[in-house]
Amino acid sequence: MAALTLHPDRLFPPDEATRAIARRLYDRIASLPIISPHGHTNPAWFAGNEPFENPAELLIIPDHYVFRMLMSTGVPLESLGIPPAGGRSTADPRAVWRLFAARYHLFRGTPSRLWLDWVFYYVFGLRSRLDAATADHYYDVIDTRLKAPEFRPRALFEQFNIEVLTTTESPLDTLEHHASIRRSGWGGRILTAYRPDNVTNPESPGFQEAIRAFGAVTGQDVTTFSGYMQAHRVRRAFFRAMGATSTDHGHPDPFTTWLPAEAVEALYRRVTTGTVTPEDARLFRGHMLTEMAGLSAEDGMVMQLHAGVFRNHNPSLFARFGADKGADIPVAVDFVHALKPLLDQWGNDPRLTLILFTLDETTFSRELAPLAGHYPALRLGPPWWFLDSPDGMARFRAAATETAGFYNTVGFNDDTRAFLSIPARHDVARRADAAYLARLVAEHRIGEDEAEEIAHDLTYGLVKKAYQL
Amino acid sequence: MAALTLHPDRLFPPDEATRAIARRLYDRIASLPIISPHGHTNPAWFAGNEPFENPAELLIIPDHYVFRMLMSTGVPLESLGIPPAGGRSTADPRAVWRLFAARYHLFRGTPSRLWLDWVFYYVFGLRSRLDAATADHYYDVIDTRLKAPEFRPRALFEQFNIEVLTTTESPLDTLEHHASIRRSGWGGRILTAYRPDNVTNPESPGFQEAIRAFGAVTGQDVTTFSGYMQAHRVRRAFFRAMGATSTDHGHPDPFTTWLPAEAVEALYRRVTTGTVTPEDARLFRGHMLTEMAGLSAEDGMVMQLHAGVFRNHNPSLFARFGADKGADIPVAVDFVHALKPLLDQWGNDPRLTLILFTLDETTFSRELAPLAGHYPALRLGPPWWFLDSPDGMARFRAAATETAGFYNTVGFNDDTRAFLSIPARHDVARRADAAYLARLVAEHRIGEDEAEEIAHDLTYGLVKKAYQL
Amino acid sequence: MAALTLHPDRLFPPDEATRAIARRLYDRIASLPIISPHGHTNPAWFAGNEPFENPAELLIIPDHYVFRMLMSTGVPLESLGIPPAGGRSTADPRAVWRLFAARYHLFRGTPSRLWLDWVFYYVFGLRSRLDAATADHYYDVIDTRLKAPEFRPRALFEQFNIEVLTTTESPLDTLEHHASIRRSGWGGRILTAYRPDNVTNPESPGFQEAIRAFGAVTGQDVTTFSGYMQAHRVRRAFFRAMGATSTDHGHPDPFTTWLPAEAVEALYRRVTTGTVTPEDARLFRGHMLTEMAGLSAEDGMVMQLHAGVFRNHNPSLFARFGADKGADIPVAVDFVHALKPLLDQWGNDPRLTLILFTLDETTFSRELAPLAGHYPALRLGPPWWFLDSPDGMARFRAAATETAGFYNTVGFNDDTRAFLSIPARHDVARRADAAYLARLVAEHRIGEDEAEEIAHDLTYGLVKKAYQL
C-alpha cells in the first residue's frame, strides 16, 4: 500500500535555485483567500446546506474529467453511475467507486490526479494512495465524513477560505437559491453571473419557449427585437441587484457581427417564430455578442466569452446520456476576424471589459496576446478546461506574457462544478504562477520584489479588479 | 580529429536531481526488447539475408532525412547518388560519402545526427567524429564490416534485440518474402501490415489497374462495390494468416464520410472506370476510411491513420526522381470535423482500435488528446516523422498527457526504412520518455514507483497491447 | 528606490551546469560586431546627425510596443504624445514620460522591459529602476545626455559596434539620405533595401499615383506590364548601386500565383486604371511575389517575405492616428499551398535566397522547417515582431532546428525603428542562442566545440552569408 503524500514543493521547477524562489513566492500567496469569479457549482448546495450523498455522487458522477477518461479506456458510462438522459442512475455507488479506484493509475500525469489527491489528503485526511486495494477504505472514510457537520457545503466553503464564489445562471433562473442564501443570514458571498445562451443562441434546445419565458419573467413584449433587448436590460438589472458583476457567453465560435436595425428585426422574427437555419442562428448569436458588449458598456457588467468547442460530438452518447458528458471537443478558432465587428464598436470603450477564453492555445501568442495588448476593452482569461493544468498554465504564461504582459490578464478562475476541487485548483494555479515567476527571476528578467507583487496580483488583485469584486 | 562519444546521460534533463531520476528510469527500460509495430524496412532483406551494398547505399541514398537536408543547402540530389525516376544511380558511392561527411555539421541539433552517431558508434565501432577528414576512414570501416556475417540483416536483427518488426505492404503484394522468412526456419518475427492506399485512393498512380489486380489476386468480382469490399475481406484474411495484426492508411487529410449504398456504388463505378475528379477521389477515400474501421471492428485488425501531408510538393524534383524524395510537407489538419462520420459509427465500438498520427502538433492538445480521452476506439500514435525527435517527443507528452493520460497512447514506433537506425530511434524515445517522467517525479506529480511502471508500459506494455503482439 | 541592475547571467538557464556553458558560449560572441540586415531606422538620422529631441520623442512616441501596452490598459494615445494623423503632437514630453514611468511595471515579463533597461543602463548610465518616483530623474538625465555629441546618431552607431545597418525604402524613395551619408565621408555602413509594396500591392493607399511616380522616377512606360517590370529592373539596379543587397515584401498573406502573360497584362491594366477589387489586388500581389523571386534570381538580391498580419485592425484608431499604431494583429497562415507557385518556379534555383518570416509560430515545425529543410532557395528568418523575445526565440529554435537545422536560418535581425534598442535586441538574441545551445550541450546532443562554432555562425557568419554583406 503506497503512501499518499503531497510534497510541499510540488509543481515547482526542479532546479534548486529556481525552486527556492518559487517556494518563497508561493509562501506569500498560499493562504490568500480564494476569489472564484466564474464556475458552475450549484447554489442550492449553499442554500439548503444538506450533506453530499456519497463518494461516487460527489466525486465521480458530476466530474466529466473523471468519467471521460474511464470511458476512453473502455469503461461504459452506465457502470459509472452516469444516469441516462432524463432518468436516474441505478448503479451501486460503492461499485462505481471500486471501478474508479482500480483505474486510478489512468490519471497519472493529469490534473485530475492532482486535484483528487488534494481532496483526499486535505479534505478527507487520507494517507494511502487510491487503488483497488484501498478502494473500500476510501469509500468508507469519505462516506462517513460526508455525514459530519463540518463537511456540509457552508462549512467547507468557510474552511476553504473562499471570499467570493460565483455561480452561473440563465436569465430564466429565479435566483431563488441565491435569495435564500441572502435571507439565511449566512455570511458566505455567493454571486450569480448572467449566462443568456439559452435566449441568445437559436440552436439551444427549446429556444423559442425560452424566449417566451424570458418575456414572462421580465414582463416585456418579446415579440419585437427591441422588446427582447429591453428584457435583457430588465433581467440584467435583476441579476445585478442580486450581486452579479459579470455575464458569460458560451459560443461555438467567437464570430460577431453588427446588423442594421431592420435586418435584426427580421432575423429576430425568423429565429423566434420559424424554423431556424444554421446561418440565421450564427448571425443572431454573432449580433447578440455585439449587443451584449453594448449592454456591458452601459451597465458595467464584465463580459466573458468562452468560444470554440464542438459540443456533443458523440451522438449515440448524447442520445443515451445527454449533454456535458465529456464529449465536447475543442476546435481551432480565429479571434482576429471574428471579434472585429464587436471590437470596431466597443474595443476602445473604457467602460467595457471583455474577458476571452480559448481551448486553441495556438491563439495565445498569435491572436489573443496581440489583441489584449492593444484593445483597452480586452483581457485574457486564465487557461480554460483542458488547459487548466500545470503545463497548460505554463504554456499560457510563456506564450502570452511577452506580448500582453501580466496586467492584461485577470487571475485564475476554476470554472468547475466539482466544489471540493476548488482549493486544489487554485493551489495548482498559484504554484504554476510561482513557478513561472521564479523562472523569470532566476533568469534575471524581473526582480524578486517585482515577482512578489505580480504573484499577489495574479492571485488576488487582478481578479478582484477585473470582476469588480 | 574530434572524438565521437555518446554520453550515457544524453537527452536527460541537465538539472542534476531530475537527471538522476531519468537515469534510474532509463536503466530499467534500456535493454527491453524492441517492439517495432510500424515501419518500412524491406522484408526481402530478411528473406535473402544478403549483405548491404556499401555505406552510401545503406545510410544516405534511402534516408530522405539525410539527403533532403543536404539538398536544402545546395547539394544536387544527383551528386548524392539518388537515382533518377526509373533509372539507376551512376554516382560513385565513396564520392557520395565524402559529400555527406564534409557537410555532417548541417545535422547538428537534428535527430539524424543522434541516430547516425549511434549507428557509427555502436554498430560500426567508430570513435572519431565524422567530417571531411575522417570521411574515408568511415567509408572503409563501414564498407569492410558490411561484408562480415555479423552485419547481415538477420544477424543485426538479433543483435538489436528486436522482438517484433512490422513492415508495410500493399494488398497486391504477394508477401512472398514474408513467406520465405517463415519457411526458412529463422526465428526472427517479421510481420506485415495491410496498407491498401493504392486500392482505396483513386488518385494514387495506376489506381484502376490496381483495382483489376486486386480482383485477380483475391478472386473477387471487383466491378461492383460489394465485390470490392469482399476482396478487402479476403485479402485482409490472407494478411492476418501471414501474421498481420494491423492496417495502415496514409491520406492527404483525415476526412471521413459515410455514403448511402447506392451513392457508393455509383461513386465506385466512376472512380474505377472513368476520369477521376478530385472531389470523387476525396469522397471515396473518406468513405473507405469508415469502411476500413468497420472491417477492423469485424476482424480485429488495429487501424492506423497517417494523415496531413502534401506529397511531392516539388514537381520538378518529382519529375526527375519520383516520390519519397524529401519533398513531402505537412499541412494543418482538423480531426474534429473530419473524423466525425467515422466516429459516429465506430468511435464507441470496443472492438476497434484506431491509432492517429499527425504532423500538425497544434492538434495534440486541442483535438487529439480530447478525442482520445473520450472515444474508446481512439489511441494516439507516437510523434511522427519530423516530430520523431527529442524536443518533438517532449512537446507531444507535455501537450497530450494532461488531457489523454499515458494509457491512451501506444508506445513508440520508428516508422523507418533505415534499418540500422531502429535501435537508435527506440533509444531516443526511451530517453525522451524517461526525461519527461523524471520531470513529473521531480515536480512531485507522480511517484517514482509509478514512473517506473509507466516507463515500462510506454516502452513495452502499451505497444504490445495496442497492436496485439 | 529600487536599483537598476543588469545581471551578467540574464536570460541564461537557471540550472548551474547549463548556465556555465551558456556563459562560456555567450562570452565568445558578446562583443562581435552587430550586423543588422533588416530594419526601419531613418537614414536621415545618420545623414543629418542631429541630436534626438527628447526622451519621449526618442523612446515612447516611435515605439509601438511601448504605447500599445499603455493604451491596452487604458491610457489614451493622445496623452502619450502620439500625433493625430497628418498633425503634430501637442503633449508635453515630460508629462508623457511621467505617464510612462508610472506604468513601467506593465512591461514586466516583456522584451520591451529588457530592451529599455539595457538602454537606460548602458546608454544613459542610469542606476535606479524607472517608476513614478524616478521619472523626472530619468527625464533630466536622458534629456541632458541627448544634447551631448556622443549621443548623436553617428556616435551611437559607432559606440554600438554596428558593422552594417540596413534601412528599408520604397522604390519611389530618392535615397538622398543614403547618398548624403556616402558623400559625407563618414565610415558607417548604412544600406538600403528595396521594399516595393506601394507599387506591388494595389490596395496600398495611393497605389495608382505611386505607379505613375514609379514610371517617372525610372523613365519607363508603366502603362504596360512589361514596362512596369522594366521599371523594377531599373530601380533595383539603382538600389543595388547604392549598396542594397536585399528586397523586402510585406504582404497580408504569403499567397503567390503565376498568371499567363495576357492575363497579367489585363490584370495590370485593371489595377492601375480602374477600381481595384480585393480579388484582383490579391492576384496581383501573388503574381508579383513570383515575379520578384525571378528578378532576385536574375540580379542576386536576397528576397525577404514578411506575411500574415491584419493591418490597422482598429478603424477608429486608424482614423485618428493613422498606420503603425500597434493595431496590427497576426493571423494564421498557410505557407505550404501559398508559396507553391513561387517555389514551383524558383524553389530549386541556386541563385535565389528567399527568407521567410512569420507571426504564426504553429508554422515553425509544421511548415517552415520542412520547407526550408528541403528547398535550396528557402531560409528561415529569425522570430519576428511579437516573437522577438527570449521565450519566442527559444520556441523558434526548439521547433525549427530538429527539422531544418541551424544552417537554413540566417542569424538575427532587429527589424526595428527604435535605434537605441538595436544593441539590446541583438544582445537578447545572442543570449537566447547561447541558452539554447547550452541546453543541447548539457543534454549531450552536440559538443561544446560545435556549439561555439554554431554560436558564431548564428551571430555573424550566417547573416553575412545570407545577405551577402
UniProtKB/TrEMBL annotation, chains A, B, C:
Gene3D superfamilies: Metal-dependent hydrolases, uronate isomerase, domain 2, chain A. Pathway: Carbohydrate metabolism; pentose and glucuronate interconversion. Its EC number is 5.3.1.12. GO terms for biological process: D-galacturonate catabolic process; D-glucuronate catabolic process. It catalyses: aldehydo-D-galacturonate = keto-D-tagaturonate; D-glucuronate = D-fructuronate. GO terms for molecular function: glucuronate isomerase activity. It comes from the Bacteria. Keywords: Isomerase. NCBIfam families: PRK02925.1. Belongs to the metallo-dependent hydrolases superfamily. Uronate isomerase family. This is Uronate isomerase. The gene is uxaC.
